[in-house]
Amino acid sequence: MTTLQIEHVTKTYRGGVRANDDISLEAAAGEVFGLLGPNGAGKTTLVSQVLALLVPDSGTISIDGIDVVRRPDEARRLCSFQPQAAAPVDGLSARQAIEIIGSIRGGRRDVVRRRASELLEALDLGDVADRPVRMSGGMARLTGFCMAAVVPGRVVVLDEPTNDVDPLRRRALWEQIRRLADDGAAVLLVTHNVLEAERCVDRLAIVAGGKVRAVGEPGRLKAELAAPLRLECTLDPTADVPELPPSAALTARTGRRLLAHVHLADVGDAVSWAQHAQDAGVITEFAVGAASLEDVYATWVQTEGAPA
To answer: Which residue has the higher pLDDT, 230 or 195?
Structure first.
């Protein structure tokens, strides 16, 4: 059953900047839906409209059939939110901050306390949960997630939840994000961390230039790439950028990193080309592997169009 429905939403800022351009998406209860895109893609504007903090110029947004523009108070009741900025919890312990938000969201005191303890232990925060000290970036992010998850809404919006979080706790955090969906919430996950998101999202939308460029399950989007294998090269900073062999399709170049795609039948030629380029000192290293969600993201964001 669809919980969050976004239909033909457009939002233009002063000066004619169109942040969202006819965006339509939906997320169901029990689903982690990823919203991926570069800075300036329109993700934050869309999230602000879901939370009824901004009003779209046109289109509709509903949660469980409730129009969030007409009934913004209901929208905020039905949503819980972890913003990209760290939670302002200075002077409070993590446990106090989480329990206060749980109370504000209407949770029973005993249930909120139990849930807060579960989250703190799951994220390995038990030893510091009751210290009212200034938190590091990662600790504040984890506390912010717990504040959104202690009494989750029908829709849980998480904006870059893993920023500044150390690798071990990040893994535990992804497990808790998955659990929110498994317990019945529709989770809208805004992230740049494509590789980690691939392990968690059920479906995703790639947004660039205010438009939805691709939407679907990660496996299907990977299958629609121009070729199923990736060739990744690290360029020598002193050498000219080499010309790829005809069998390889350039996907993206970022700094010294060059990414291309090849078909299985052409992988031998691609490896021979890369080995020759490495021997010539043009590239310092290379690797061939299966295409990933990162490749899908790079293809759509770099070209802002469909894969060839």
So the answer is: 230
pLDDT of 110 > 80? The answer is yes
User: Is the pLDDT at 289 greater than 50, yes or no?
Assistant: yes
Give CA–CA dist 220/44, Å, rounded.
26
295 within a domain of the structure (yes/no): no
Name the burial class of residue 192, with classes exposed (0-12), middle (13-18) and buried (19+) by CB atoms within 10 angstroms of its CB. middle
In a domain, 306, yes or no: no
209-221 pLDDT tens trace: 999 999 999 888 8
Domain limits at 207? 2-218
The answer on 185 and 51 residing in a single domain is yes
- Of 167, 196, 218, the one marking the end of a domain is 218
Give the strand order in the sheet containing 2-13.
17-28, 2-13, 58-63, 66-67
The pTM assigned to this predicted structure is: 0.85
Q: What are phi and psi of 203, to 5 degrees?
A: -140, 165
Residues 176 and 279 both lie in one domain: no
Q: Does some domain include residue 56?
A: yes
Regarding whether 185 and 100 lie in a shared domain, the answer is yes
Q: How many domains does the chain have?
A: 2
Structure tokens of 173? 């955090």
Give the pLDDT confidence score for residue 308 in this predicted structure.
Answer: 34
CA distance 197 to 231: 21
Please report the pLDDT score of residue 105 as a whole number. 94
The most distant pair of C-alpha atoms in the chain lies apart, rounded to whole Å, by 68
Look at residues 199, 218, 237 and tell me which one is the last residue of a structural domain. Answer: 218
Task: Give the residue among 218, 239, 214, 216 at the shortest CA–CA distance from 302.
Answer: 214
